[in-house]
Amino acid sequence: MLYRKYGKTNEMVSVLGFGCMRLPVIDGNARNIDDDKAIAMLRYGIDNGINYVDTAYPYHGDGMGGPGESEPFVARALKDGYRDKVNIATKLPSWLIRTREDMDRYLNEQLERLETDRIDFYLVHALNAGTWKTVKELGIFEFLDSAVKDGRIRYPGFSFHDELPVFKEIVDAYDWTFCQVQYNYLDEYFQAGIEGLEYAAAKGIGIAVMEPLRGGKLVRDIPESVQAAFDKTDIKRTPADWALRWVWNNPDVAVTLSGMSTMEQVEENLKIANEAHPGSLSKQELDIVEEARTAFRQTRVSCTGCAYCMPCPAGVNIPGNFTYVNEYYFLDNDKQKQALKETYASRIPEVGRASKCVECGTCEEHCPQNLLIIEELKHVVEVFA
């Protein structure tokens, strides 16, 4: 395992962090984590050098932002001495904060859920212009200072989903030690982007990267045009290998979080993490990734499949609909497109189709990508009518 200094903290963190958002589950129920498989995966990762475990209050929940099952899972997985081998990162649910007292209440609840007396890296979760305004007015800085002073957290940070000017404002407002941003070869200029990443790093703020594989979109069922770009070279790598190496090529990135769902993914990512030194990609390799990026940008909807928009009050399977419409735009001829329409009709039950959207807007309030979901669902209806 390779390690990098985590900004001004001077902590050495594994370049691969274990994200506990997409763990294996039983019967498709996000709240029913398959402990046997998931614990084996996490401990295997730790045994092979991972020392950064990332979770959050709502992970493996009902999609409505309340308490999920990821934090209690982490507590179970880190028994038998594993807690002392890793740094735990979790997050204050900013959207639930109504008073200054709420901040302490949620942190104390998380300490209990994680069965620990300290959280190593504590983030204010999913900051955007709205939640930033709220927590700032309610005293987030005093809360973080007090939690560091009394030992409940070691390092304060934030995760981010908004535009670059908001990111810079947040960076400049407090003595943050680290931050978490979305960054991959498709999203180099999305949200904080490369400019924000470099802006924070220049101030000594450690950089954690989320969505390096864009929720699996960069590795699963990729378009033939993207695979063709990778196949042009004698360098044989999987799509995950290309995507992760591209992120790790940036020396400002300290830890990259991967939400691994199978042991095979853990093994593959560990292998890559042992080899991905900063600045190690050649110009030829960077050009290949650029070609893959160009092919990928034919995608209609930039959905990562995080399911923050779910459950839909009207029953629409939002990520599922977007998966099909994106696949539609990758197809080359009318025959393939017609076959996909038939597949859509057979696999997406009528109750879950885009046509059932009532335009309530609940999904858009929760989408970290700020997608215009209602309008995109209307387009799905046009495509698959």
Automatic annotation (TrEMBL):
Family annotation (SUPFAM superfamilies): alpha-helical ferredoxin, NAD(P)-linked oxidoreductase
Residues covered by the 4Fe-4S ferredoxin-type domain: 347-377
Swiss-Prot/TrEMBL keywords: Iron, Iron-sulfur, Metal-binding
InterPro entries: 4Fe4S_Fe-S-bd, 4Fe4S_Fe_S_CS, AKR2_Oxidoreductase, NAD(P)_OxRdtase_dom_sf, NADP_OxRdtase_dom
CDD domains noted in UniProt: AKR_Fe-S_oxidoreductase
GO terms of molecular function: iron-sulfur cluster binding; metal ion binding
Superkingdom in the source lineage: Bacteria
Keyword Transferase: no
Protein name: Aldo/keto reductase
Annotated organism of origin: Paenibacillus rhizophilus
